[in-house]
Design a protein that fits this description.
The longest helix is centred in the first third of the chain and has 13 residues. With 280 residues, this protein is of the alpha+beta class. It has an 18-stranded mixed β-sheet that branches. Helix 2 packs across helix 6.
């Protein structure tokens, strides 16, 4: 075993301990896939990331992303949390934006004041959801057909199926049967419709991925990126909006969406909660 720098970063925060933590390990070139997977199981967080030397010379770093159950080609909150950790450790981008190399290719990350945002990667699968899958989802989540405004594949790597529900309240009312979901990765989004506080978010989001050891993910960048890509294309969401996620778990994550006409940026604030070394 050898010591490596380590940070645990809270991502998409709106205050202290309100977001989704990611474990970040530096200088991971010497680790095997089995060692990375074992440490991800041990942390028992939604994701654990490992910095590696990139193959593409334009990238600032390579990133491996593991859940407790599998490796992912891309994930949003680990992308932003790892970029935050890299900057905090003294990292300097080669160009204006940070460039991350991961399983889906190169991801651009920009700095927005005290926040970071990644450019949403293209969907690797979109379009209608099979009727049999929808039936499983409806039964597992206790949804009636009238609760669902629209559904679509919003897969940018983690195999997301997205459902737009009638309201944020209906999203919060869902009580999942995780076993019944099987291998499906499902996200819900619903709008806030009544008049509320001026700073209230526009949408409520929830994410269910029990197959990979994450029954409900607190705040999910990849899902929010997939939702934004789909909803913006269908003119069902404004150019800029704020999504709240984690309410059902006692969190208050904030995800900021900004479609600038070229990229859809998915952003939020991060905070390092733990810093030190890990022996692996």
């Amino acid at each position: 075993m050898s010591s490596r720098s380590f940070q645990q970063v809270d991502v998409f925060v709106s205050g202290s301990l309100t977001g989704n933590p990611v474990a970040v390990v530096f200088d991971a070139d010497g680790l095997t896939d089995e060692q990375m997977a074992a440490f991800a199981r041990w942390t028992n967080l939604s994701e654990t990331t490992f910095f590696t030397t990139p193959r593409d010379p334009s990238a600032d770093y390579g990133l491996r992303i593991f859940t407790p159950g599998e490796e992912l080609p891309f994930a949003g909150h680990p992308t932003l949390g790892s970029a935050h950790a890299w900057l905090r450790a003294g990292g300097q981008p080669k160009a204006g934006n940070i460039i991350q190399e991961c399983g889906v290719g190169l991801i651009s990350i920009r700095r927005d004041g005290d926040a970071l945002a990644f450019a949403a990667p293209p969907l690797v699968r979109s379009g209608p959801v099979d009727a049999a899958d929808l039936d499983v989802i409806h039964r597992a989540l206790g949804l009636r057909p009238s609760d669902v405004v629209a559904s679509n594949w919003v897969d940018n790597g983690p195999r997301w199926i997205g459902l737009l529900l009638t309201s944020a309240q209906r999203v919060l009312e869902v009580r999942p049967d995780f076993a019944a979901l099987g291998t499906l990765h499902v996200g819900l989004i619903g709008p806030y419709r009544d008049n509320g506080p001026q700073d209230r978010p526009d949408f409520e989001v929830r994410a269910f991925v029990p197959e990979i050891g994450v029954p409900e993910d607190p705040v999910t960048g990849s899902l929010n990126a997939g939702f934004a890509t789909w909803l913006r294309a269908e003119k069902m969401a404004p150019d800029r909006y704020v999504a709240l996620q984690g309410t059902a778990l006692g969190r208050a994550g904030r995800v900021f969406i900004d479609d600038d006409g070229t990229n859809i940026w998915v952003g939020g604030r991060s905070s390092t909660v733990i810093a030190g070394e890990v022996d692996l």
